[in-house]
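Before any further analysis, backbone shapes were mapped to integers, which produced the following:

***
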Amino acid sequence: MDVLDARCPSRDVFVDLADKWVLLMLVSLREGGDQRYSELQRSLGGISRKMLSPTLRTMARDGLVLRSVNPEASPPLVMYGLTSLGREIAEETRALCTWTEKRAATVNEARAAYDRRHAVTQEA
């Protein structure tokens, strides 16, 4: 397997996982446990229903998320939670989250410096 090889089947899996909403959803479900659709949408701050539904379907198709329905509740209670495979990759995202939270200010400073340099170049 080689994610850098466009023909490798691992590449499609990697591309799905690298989606910003997938990563954020993994974090939310890892930290918050099983959630209803509306809870998940709120926890992700900024995701539209138009993006949430297909992201959940992709994650379910990839075996990362399980949609469960309690038909005895009125209205039926639909919950989304991580499968064992989903929990495994969600744990792997912990290091990325920690690094991001630790280094966000440094990255934002680098962006601002880059933008200043390129704004001068573009004006000339």
In short: DSSP finds five helices and two strands in the chain. The chain has a mean pLDDT of 92.
